[in-house]
From TrEMBL:
Residues 54-91 are annotated as: Disordered. Residues 300-375 form the CusB-like beta-barrel domain. Residues 174-295 form the CusB-like barrel-sandwich hybrid domain. Keywords: Transport. Belongs to the membrane fusion protein (MFP) (TC 8.A.1) family. This is Efflux RND transporter periplasmic adaptor subunit. Pfam families: Beta-barrel_RND_2, BSH_CusB, CzcB_C. Residues 383-442 form the CzcB-like C-terminal circularly permuted SH3-like domain. InterPro entries: Beta-barrel_RND_2, BSH_CusB, CzcB_C, MFP_Cation_Efflux, RND_pump_MFP.
Amino acid sequence: MNTLRLLTALALTGSLALGGSWLMTDGRSSVHAAVVSATEGGARTPLYFRDPGGAPLWSAGPRKDDRGRDYLPVYDDDQAAPAEPKPSQAAASRKILYYRNPMGLPDTSPVPKKDPMGMNYIPVYEGDDFDDGTVKLSPGKIQRTGVKSEPAERRSIRVLVKAPGTIQLDERRVSVIAMRAESFVQKIADVTTGTRVKAGQPLMEIYSSAVASAAAEYLATITSKTVGGVEVYGRGSRQRLVNLDVPEQVIAEMEKTRVAPVTIHWAAPRDGIVLERNAIEGMRANPGDVLFRIADISLVWALVDVAERDLGNIAVGQSVTVRARSFPGRAFTGRIAVIYPQVNRETRTVRVRVELANPDAALLPDMYVDADIDTADGAPVLAIQDSSVLDTGTRQAVLVDKGDGRFEPREVKLGRRGGGYIEVRDGLADGEAVVTSANFLIDAESNLKSALKGFAEAAPQASDAGHATGEHK
């Protein structure tokens, strides 16, 4: 063996000397020193020495570079020794199972070797591989990859369901002014579409022969001195005026003055905005013709369309925050009043009615809004951060931190999501620590180790099959 090493060293000395890459003064003395060290004590003899910085410089004997660093010895197994080898006692006492590819490729070797790029294969020691399905990382790798863990705890999941919608009028706050008998519009107040009016504010004057006749009859009844049945008859005459929708203040004025008016002053029945004005001076209004339409917008509806998948999370009474696109920095708060019992066939959404206070009339009908429905449940549930879940689409898993650098992949069943957390319904216990960051790197390490283990187990079987085939031949 020593003779083989000597011949190899002499051959390499000649080839490198011809290439002009030697930085030495006396090649023969260095080779002689190598031969002497090989014959004394049976120690390993370096074939040559290479530059510690990786430059294409070699030497047949020990030497230093221009920075004073020692050249690294290269032995017959093609493994360069480190500049100052300081193997730990723990690593020295552990058994090397095999060597794996430094680039993560599914390639192992029972002996030290290099890949095509000149990188040394990485040893895998006994104890680094676990058959219980866990993955073990060194403390240095955990620190470099930024692995962080957090225990699973019980907390309330706050889920916000977002949905678009529009502002609509409250159907209960819309009034229509229409005549119940043939009438003529004598005069109209300075009121137009969009005008804000107060309850009792004059809108128009109308003349109606039916109203005038009923008013005269009522006055004749209440001013009559006839005794007997006058009260009953007068009550019926007044009811006729009410049936003709004569305003109450007009009837009260007639009772006070005992004068039947020729024209009737019609007033606004409520506070609101004039949405429609069809009355024109001098026009004839037939029974049922709408002359004014007034709406109170101090309270409006937000009709939002909630996706069908979120229907199970919403309920009547839940708080809703509505933001109008016309007022980006302002929020309006209301509650769900009605969930309509029908799903839109085309959009697969369900309409939800939210009642909103609108004291300054900022929200207008048909205005676009965005609603955030708070579906928070007061009951706490076991939850983890949403970054902890490894989701393949068909199953969900987390990495449980077992301590001492060991991580166990575990499949879980999840529930609601919200506020950066996910409900865990099965697979974890309260207080178990799960990895919240760098879990994809650990998962990649787990897949790599599984692949390497499969190749390592398949290699001996393939070797035994080859021997069996050779013996058969």
